[in-house]
Amino acid sequence: xxxxxxxxxxxxxxxxxxxxxxxxxxxxxxxxxxxxxxxxxxxxxxxxxxxxxxxxxxxxxxxxxxxxxxxxxxxxxxxxxxxxxxxxxxxxxxxxxxxxxxxxxxxxxxxxxxxxxxxxxxxxxxxxxxxxxxxxxxxxxxxxxxxxxxxxxxxxxxxxxxxxxxxxxxxxxxxxxxxxxxxxxxxxxxxxxxxxxxxxxxxxxxxxxxxxxxxxxxxxxxxxxxxxxxxxxxxxxxxxxxxxxxxxxxxxxxxxxxxxxxxxxxxxxxxxxxxxxxxxxxxxxxxxxxxxxxxxxxxxxxxxxxxxxxxxxxxxxxxxxxxxxxxxxxxxxxxxxxxxxxxxxxxxxxxxxxxxxxxxxxxxxxxxxxxxxxxxxxxxxxxxxxxxxxxxxxxxx
Length: 397
Prior knowledge:
Blueprint: E1 17-18, E2 23-24, H1 36-52, H2 58-73, E3 76-78, H3 86-108, H4 110-117, H5 120-133, H6 139-147, E4 151-155, E5 163-168, E6 173-182, E7 185-195, H7 211-214, H8 219-237, H9 256-281, H10 286-303, H11 319-327, H12 330-334, E8 336-343, E9 347-354, E10 359-368, E11 371-381, H13 382-389
Parallel strand pairs: 3-4
Antiparallel strand pairs: 1-2, 4-5, 5-6, 6-7, 8-9, 9-10, 10-11
């Protein structure tokens, strides 16, 4: 039986959003989570609007707040861009707004997202994916789960044909989307959903079990490693020269048999994730019912600002993680939802993350049935793991 107890992982403080300069330092692994170039263009414009209206216009306040939400909330990995013109800055801003809006719309209504932010050709590809993965009854629940806790990986080397990967680390699947500006609004023109294994060219593995669940050792660390490796692979494959002919970069997209195999495998992986969520939400064992209850109590305590009272009982938690948990604001805990839960005959492990998926919180509960106790917390900081794994990467600097 696999040992679920995490093995000594060190996590820096989960990101703080610095309002003045948009220094968003909690990335998903890989490219920068900093949007300085975008902020340079959009911040003066928004602040000027506020100044002109003395901050009194409700519409201006809401517009400003919406812009900040889109820019600050969505965790992204973006390939660094150099010497961008103001036109490029505006294009990147428009792209990021559209990309985040698509994720939010698809989470609530996949069909509306397609009608709003996809061209006819893009809709055809996205509909094909939907039909290949889900039954009509499962479709919306499946997409909601896919986008929950997921992240966006950007390849912006060619702003005229940028690629955005929507990556769910728990199911280890990536929705690759190609975008193009239409009347200054970016829309999806092409798309494909693949298992992340296809991005790892050095590996011959293809499994219906998510990559992080196949790794030996600590599962929180395995999750972080999977995120880092997949982001690095996406960035490497889809360089600025490769975005326009992106389908040629992946063998699975140039072979009908492999493409069918990919859809079958991805459907099984995504459905396993969906079943895992249902088993947590509607537990059929005493252990999972207790896990659900205790997890809810922990999150409630953290939201009320009293998580510090629970930390002494979780005596296997690394000291630096204890310090960071004490510093995290209640609002962060309020944004958490359970993404994956694992039960064994010795203990259980629960993963939670915000809807935007910038980091994960893992809770290890020892015991079975109704005799469980919290033994350890881990903060899975994707950016830290990426920089440790790829110290020489230009995205780590």
